[in-house]
Design brief:
344 residues; alpha/beta; 15 strands; 24% strand; globular
C-alpha cells in the first residue's frame, strides 16, 4: 500500500465530523468518500469537508475501490451491520466504541475480520493517547508497585426525553455503552478481564441505565470502582492506586493531556503530552495507529487488541445482566458461554 491511506467515512454525525477534521490535518491520510442513509446528509457532509464522493447508502461506500479503510461512526446499535458490511466487502475497519451492543455481535465481527485477513480495531482512542501510553509504561515498570485499586467515572446530566436514543433499548440506550465503556476499558487496560462483576443502577421507565455503579474484582486482590451516568455531572476523573504510589488523572481521563504521579518519598511529578498539533481533537492518534498497522500488513493493533475489546464487551454484558438491562438484539441471553466472569 502507498504511504497515503484512503478513508471512507460511514455516517455523518458529530463524532464523524470530529474524526474527519483530524484526518484532513494528517499528511498521510486522505478522505475520499462519505456515506449516509440519505443522499442529502452525505452530500452536505462532503461539501463541508471537501470530500470527493458522497453516497446515499452504505453499500455504495464499501463498494468503492479507492477506499482502503472504512471508519464506522454510526450509533453502536448499527455497528454490527455497518462494520460487517464493510468487512464482507473486503475493507479494513475502524469501528467506534462501544464496539457493538453485546459480546456476541463483537465476536461475529472479530471472526469475520480474522477469517478474511482484514484489519479491524475498536476506536478506543484512549488506548492510543500518548499520556495513557506513558502511564501504562510507568505501571509496567513498577513505578507505583502492584495495582490495588482503580477508580474512574464518566457522567453528565442531560435533558434526554423518552424519545431520545439514550432512552431507547433498541438503540443500545443508557449510560453504560455510551459512557461506562470508558471507565471499564481504562480498568481492563491495566488489570485485564475481571474475575467478578457486581453492579447496581437506576433504570429509566424504558429499561435503560441512567446511573450505574460497578465493582470489579480480580483474583489478585485488585478492585475497580467505576461509575457512569447521564443524570449526574461527574468529574470524569481516574486514579490508579498501587502499593508504592498512585497516578491521578484530575479530569478527562479518557483523552488526557496530563496526569500526576505520586511516589512514596518523592515530590509529585506531572506528566504531560506537550502542546501537540493545534486544533486537533486527539483522534489523530488512533487514526495514525490504524494507518501504521494497515501499511505494515497487520490485521490487529497491539494497542487496541481485539481480544481486549471482546473482554470489555463481556464485562459490559455482565453489568447489564446484574442491573437488568436488556436490548432486543440480545436475543435469549446477554452473557453467552464464553463469558468468564462469575456472578457477584
Amino acid at each position: 500500500m502507498s504511504r497515503t491511506v484512503r478513508w471512507g467515512v460511514l455516517a455523518t454525525g458529530g463524532i464523524a465530523a470530529t474524526f474527519t477534521a483530524d484526518l484532513l490535518a494528517m499528511p498521510d491520510a486522505e478522505v475520499v468518500a462519505v456515506a449516509s442513509r440519505t443522499d442529502t446528509a452525505a452530500k452536505a457532509f462532503a461539501e463541508r469537508f471537501a470530500i470527493p464522493r458522497a453516497y446515499g447508502s452504505w453499500a455504495e461506500l464499501v463498494a468503492d475501490d479507492e477506499v482502503d479503510v472504512v471508519y464506522v461512526a454510526t450509533p453502536h446499535s448499527a455497528h454490527r451491520e455497518a462494520a460487517g458490511l464493510a468487512l464482507e466487502a473486503g475493507k479494513h475497519v475502524l469501528c467506534e466504541k462501544a464496539f457493538t451492543l453485546n459480546e456476541r455481535e463483537a465476536r461475529e465481527l472479530v471472526e469475520l475480520a480474522r477469517g478474511r485477513g482484514l484489519f479491524l480495531m475498536e476506536a478506543m482512542w484512549t488506548y492510543c493517547n500518548p499520556v495513557i501510553r506513558r502511564m501504562t509504561e510507568l505501571v509496567r515498570d513498577g513505578a507505583i508497585g502492584e495495582i490495588r485499586t482503580v477508580q474512574a467515572d464518566f457522567g453528565f446530566a442531560g435533558d434526554f426525553g423518552a424519545e431520545h436514543r439514550l432512552r431507547d433499548p433498541a438503540l443500545g440506550g443508557g449510560a453504560l455503552l455510551d459512557l461506562g465503556v470508558y471507565p471499564v476499558s481504562f480498568a481492563q487496560l491495566l488489570l485485564g478481564e475481571p474475575d467478578r462483576v457486581r453492579a447496581d443502577a437506576l433504570l429509566s421507565p424504558e429499561g435503560v441505565d441512567l446511573n450505574t455503579g460497578m465493582l470489579l474484582g480480580w483474583d489478585s486482590g485488585a478492585t475497580a470502582l467505576l461509575a457512569c451516568s447521564i443524570v449526574g455531572h461527574h468529574p470524569t476523573a481516574a486514579t490508579v492506586i498501587g502499593t508504592a504510589g498512585r497516578i491521578d488523572f484530575p479530569d478527562s481521563f479518557f483523552y488526557p493531556q496530563r496526569f500526576v504521579l505520586h511516589r512514596a518519598g518523592r515530590e509529585p511529578e506531572e506528566v504531560t503530552s506537550g502542546p501537540g498539533p493545534q486544533g486537533l481533537s486527539g483522534m489523530q492518534f488512533e487514526a495514525a495507529e490504524v494507518m501504521r498497522a494497515v501499511r505494515a500488513g497487520e490485521t490487529e493493533s497491539p494497542l487496541v487488541p481485539l481480544d481486549g475489546s471482546l473482554a470489555v464487551m463481556r464485562t459490559l454484558d455482565a453489568v447489564r445482566d446484574r442491573v437488568g438491562v436488556r436490548y432486543p438484539a440480545d436475543g435469549s441471553s446477554t452473557t453467552g458461554p464464553r463469558t468468564r466472569v462469575r456472578r457477584g
